[in-house]
Specification:
The chain has 159 residues and is mostly beta strands. The chain has one domain: OB fold (Dihydrolipoamide Acetyltransferase, E2P), CATH 2.40.50.140. It contains 2 helices and 8 strands. Strand 3 and strand 4 form a beta hairpin.
Length: 159
């Protein structure tokens, strides 16, 4: 069989606070949407902006990260794969479809003032199979605090 690729890379903003739930088996699932924008010229030569909404699904540890750090307005870098689910509508019996991005990797790009109200940041750079992740939980220092802590006296030098 020929090799194929199913990989998605998105950089966008979260549309509303994520929905967090657990499956019957106890697996945590986070559902949220990301908006991306594109600009194109119309027939008259005017720039038109078009927004595309993407349905995201994160599982297990990534769902926990989304729960703890992602809020409406957060800017995220997402890597994942496209998956389309289908089911029969209980009311009408019609076949329904939903295309989603299964999140394999994410990086929180916005600071506290840009949507996320919690401290710290998160960038998952490990493979999904290892389940390892690292994140910085230190509060962001104000510029004055940083300047104060950066002053070094002779007493600070170890020799």
């Amino acid at each position: 069989m020929a090799k194929s690729v199913n990989k998605v890379t998105l950089l966008g903003n979260v549309g509303k606070d994520p929905e967090i739930r657990s499956t019957a088996g106890g697996t945590m699932v986070a559902n949220f949407t990301i908006a991306t924008s594109d600009r194109q010229k119309d027939a008259q030569g005017n720039w038109q902006e078009r927004t595309e909404w993407h349905n995201m699904v994160a599982f297990t540890r990534l769902a926990e990260i989304v729960r703890d750090y992602v809020k409406k307005g957060s800017k995220l870098y997402i890597e994942g794969k496209i998956q389309t689910r289908s089911w029969d509508d209980k009311e009408t019996g019609a076949k329904r479809y939903r295309t989603e991005i299964i999140v394999n990797d994410l990086s929180l790009l916005s600071g506290r003032e840009e949507g996320s109200s919690t401290g710290g940041g998160y960038s998952k750079a490990a493979s999904p199979s290892t389940g390892t992740a690292s994140f910085d939980q230190r509060p962001a220092a104000a510029h004055e605090d940083y300047a104060q802590s950066a002053e070094i006296s002779d007493d600070d030098i170890p020799f």
